[in-house]
């Protein structure tokens, strides 16, 4: 846009100056021609009448004209020349005649700045009237250039008005074109943003053409492929976790029965104990997997009810009383006021709290603390769960919500979970229409803040 403006200015400024010098030269030329014509007429008819006519003509032209004799004494002049002006003219003529004789003044014309004139200066010009015997006298003209200046100023105004319209038109064209060009890109940007956040069911239909259209088609087919891929992955997880449940139940049940059987060796009992424990773990993993895939498929319904959350939480925590004392961890529950009510699905919120609590228990050393804090703000209720455990390194923070992501990558670690807990928590909080934030300092502890809308 500014380029357009600069172009217009770059056009207007030279025009102004070119037109000025064009008019100036034009007027000077005209004045000189007039003087030389007068001189020729006078030489052809050297009489008082000729002089009278010349003066009359110049009177009509509204210029100041003086005829000097060879002694530089004024012989005839137009009206309206004040004595003061006449003196100035005489001084100028005398000066220049001397300069002409000395050979230092070549022209016959000069530009003279007059006081109180805004436009180009006056043009003063003189012309020697000479015949074969020498100089007979001099003719002098003072031409005001004002009236010649006027059309020039008008022309400049026209030019500026035209520039203004060109500018406006250019600006509108620029807006229109840039919108036409960028609109499809903006739409595609929004769509790819959605794709990046996991919404693959986008439909692109921009008004782009050519390469922009090709790009759009590529993005569309990429989104379609991603959608197919993610669907088949979900289906696979859902099927496999479903189909694994029955065999695991059998293994679990029979190993449990067998290990309590009398008459088997101690060694066999230990083996069966291991089978029983591991099948329990496997069951938990498969259950998590099954639940997560159902959540991802959007097959989980939520049934919220208004719940007085503090008593509800303390009841939940009572079940962990033994675990706390066994692990030598203290637990506290505080609320900024009693009877804070919030709309939630008790079963699913139970799972959220349990998953977070079990993480805290798992990653906090003996002597540590786990605290629950409830508060209400505007139309939201927040639950803050903090522990004084080992914390999560900063570089792992964004990934702990991913399924199977665990900070401690060694899968063999006995006390490790499935790595699905936080992924499930996140989905469940989303399902509640709330949000969960995480902050953690390695070696100091971890804090999760769940915020739910009071009335879901
Ligand atoms: N309270 C916590 N303190 C320290 N690390 C945690 C805490 N909660 C979660 N983490 C880290 O986040 C990872 C993912 O958690 P999660 O999805 O529940 O998987 P899992 O508990 O099965 O390992 C854990 O492996 C652990 O490294
Ligand atoms: Mg966990």
UniProtKB/TrEMBL annotation:
Membrane-crossing residue ranges in chain numbering: 155-177
Enzyme class: transferase
One Pfam family from the record: HAMP
GO terms for MF: ATP binding
Subcellular localization: Cell membrane
Domain HAMP: 179-231
EC number: 2.7.13.3
Keyword terms, alphabetized: ATP-binding, Cell membrane, Kinase, Membrane, Nucleotide-binding, Phosphoprotein, Transferase, Transmembrane, Transmembrane helix, Two-component regulatory system
Catalytic activity: ATP + protein L-histidine = ADP + protein N-phospho-L-histidine
Protein topology in the membrane: Multi-pass membrane protein
Domain of life: Bacteria
Domain Histidine kinase: 239-456
Protein name (Swiss-Prot/TrEMBL): histidine kinase
Species, as recorded: Thalassorhabdus alkalitolerans
The organism's taxonomic lineage, starting at the top: Bacteria, Bacillati, Bacillota, Bacilli, Bacillales
């Amino acid at each position: 846009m500014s380029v357009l403006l600069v172009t217009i200015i770059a056009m207007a400024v030279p025009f102004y100056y070119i037109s000025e010098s064009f008019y100036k030269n034009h007027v000077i030329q005209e004045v000189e021609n007039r003087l030389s014509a007068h001189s020729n007429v006078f030489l052809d008819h050297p009489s008082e009448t000729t002089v009278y006519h010349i003066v009359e003509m110049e009177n009509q032209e509204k210029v100041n004209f003086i005829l000097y004799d060879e002694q530089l004494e004024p012989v005839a002049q137009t009206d309206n020349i004040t004595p003061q002006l006449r003196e100035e003219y005489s001084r100028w003529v005398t000066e220049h005649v001397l300069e002409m004789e000395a050979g230092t003044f070549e022209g016959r014309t000069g530009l003279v700045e007059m006081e109180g004139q805004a436009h180009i200066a006056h043009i003063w010009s003189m012309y020697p009237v000479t015949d074969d015997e020498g100089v007979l006298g001099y003719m002098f003209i003072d031409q005001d250039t004002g009236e010649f200046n006027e059309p020039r100023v008008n022309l400049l105004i026209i030019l500026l008005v035209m520039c203004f319209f060109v500018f406006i038109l250019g600006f509108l064209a620029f807006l229109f074109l840039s919108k036409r060009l960028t609109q499809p890109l903006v739409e595609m940007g929004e769509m790819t943003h959605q794709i990046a956040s996991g919404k693959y069911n986008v439909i692109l239909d921009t008004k782009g053409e050519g390469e922009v259209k090709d790009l759009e088609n590529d993005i569309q087919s990429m989104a379609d492929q991603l959608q197919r891929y993610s669907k088949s992955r979900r289906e696979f997880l859902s099927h496999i976790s479903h189909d694994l449940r029955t065999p695991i139940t059998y293994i679990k049940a029979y190993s449990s029965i067998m290990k309590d059987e009398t008459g088997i060796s101690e060694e066999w009992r230990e083996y069966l104990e291991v089978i029983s424990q591991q099948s329990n773990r496997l069951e938990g993993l498969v259950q998590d997997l099954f639940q997560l895939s159902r959540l991802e498929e959007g097959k989980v319904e939520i049934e919220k009810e208004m719940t007085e959350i503090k008593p509800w939480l303390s009841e939940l925590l009572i079940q962990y009383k033994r675990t706390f004392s066994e692990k030598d961890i203290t637990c506290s529950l505080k609320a900024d006021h009693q009877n804070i009510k919030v709309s939630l699905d008790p079963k699913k919120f139970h799972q959220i709290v349990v998953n977070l609590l079990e993480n805290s228990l798992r990653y906090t050393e003996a002597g540590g603390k786990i605290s629950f804090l409830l508060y209400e703000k505007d139309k939201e209720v927040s639950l803050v769960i903090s522990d004084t455990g080992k914390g999560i390194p900063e570089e792992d923070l964004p990934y702990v919500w991913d399924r199977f992501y665990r900070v401690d990558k060694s899968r063999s670690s006995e006390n490790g979970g499935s790595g699905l807990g936080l992924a499930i928590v996140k989905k469940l909080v989303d399902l509640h229409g709330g949000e969960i934030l995480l902050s953690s300092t390695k070696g100091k502890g971890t804090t999760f803040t769940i915020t739910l809308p009071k009335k879901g």
